[in-house]
């Protein structure tokens, strides 16, 4: 089920906290022509929900639709029906109140366990070669983690297709970490947890009807 504009507005309102207590763009911008990696569409092309772009364009002139061409043309084949590529005016003209969900959550994504239960957020490790925050030891804001967890939990209540999509991403992550024999660092409201890639046998504790207590990300 495609997300509606009111649903997108609700999700955006949940995400207000910055990822760190400092401007993390200072880590990558000096070696990237003064532009933070996540604000450079040539390196990280924003993907928005169609309803999200429509909502943000109604609120501001910050965003416009973008059709990948040239070396990026293959991205069009990877886009889902609910997605649209978009670009903004750039970091020097950022309107923080009109940032997209992708902007507000970068460089994290949700992590769901073997049963498809949301447990926390994890770094988007495929961006590790671009975002130095992923490989650094800088502290991630607990408020950011809490808000991301609240947003993804609500997202999955609103759209079962998004839950299924990210459950697939989590399976891929488990295979990648499993081949290296490593546990997955997941950020939760209660701290960072190292989760095994193999399913644990035996009873599993559940603190509420929504998620398992073990979780990680960022």
Radius of gyration: 17 Å
Structural class: alpha+beta
Tally of separate domains = 1
Question: Helix share of residues?
Answer: 25-40%
Proportion of β residues?
Answer: 15-25%
Would you give an account of this structure?
- This protein is an alpha+beta fold.
- The chain has one domain (5-195).
- It has helices at residues 5-13, 25-28, 50-59, 75-78, 101-105, 142-158, 160-180; strands at 47-49, 63-65, 83-88, 108-112, 118-123, 184-188, 191-195.
- The strands form three sheets. The protein has a three-stranded antiparallel β-sheet.
- Residues 203-218 have low confidence and may be disordered.
Question: What keywords describe this structure?
Answer:
218 residues; 15% strand; globular
């Amino acid at each position: 089920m495609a997300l509606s504009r009111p649903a997108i507005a609700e999700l955006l309102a949940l995400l207000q906290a910055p990822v760190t207590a400092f401007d993390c763009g200072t880590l990558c911008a000096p070696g990237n022509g003064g532009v933070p990696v996540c604000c450079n569409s040539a390196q990280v092309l924003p993907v928005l929900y169609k309803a999200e772009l429509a909502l943000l364009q109604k609120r501001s002139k910050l965003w416009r639709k973008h059709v990948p061409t040239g070396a990026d043309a293959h991205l069009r084949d990877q886009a889902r029906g609910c997605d649209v590529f978009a670009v903004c005016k750039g970091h020097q003209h950022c309107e923080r109140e009109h940032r997209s969900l992708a902007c507000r959550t970068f460089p994290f994504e949700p992590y769901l366990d073997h049963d498809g239960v949301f447990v926390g957020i994890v770094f988007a490790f495929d961006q590790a070669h671009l975002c130095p925050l992923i490989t650094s030891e800088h502290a991630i804001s607990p408020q950011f983690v809490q808000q991301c967890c609240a947003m993804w939990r609500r997202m999955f209540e609103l759209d079962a297709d998004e839950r299924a999509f990210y459950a697939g991403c989590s399976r891929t992550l488990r295979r990648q970490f499993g081949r290296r024999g490593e546990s997955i660092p997941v950020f939760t409201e209660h701290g960072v947890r190292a989760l095994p890639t193999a399913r644990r046998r035996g009873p599993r504790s559940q603190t509420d009807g929504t998620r398992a207590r073990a979780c990680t990300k960022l």
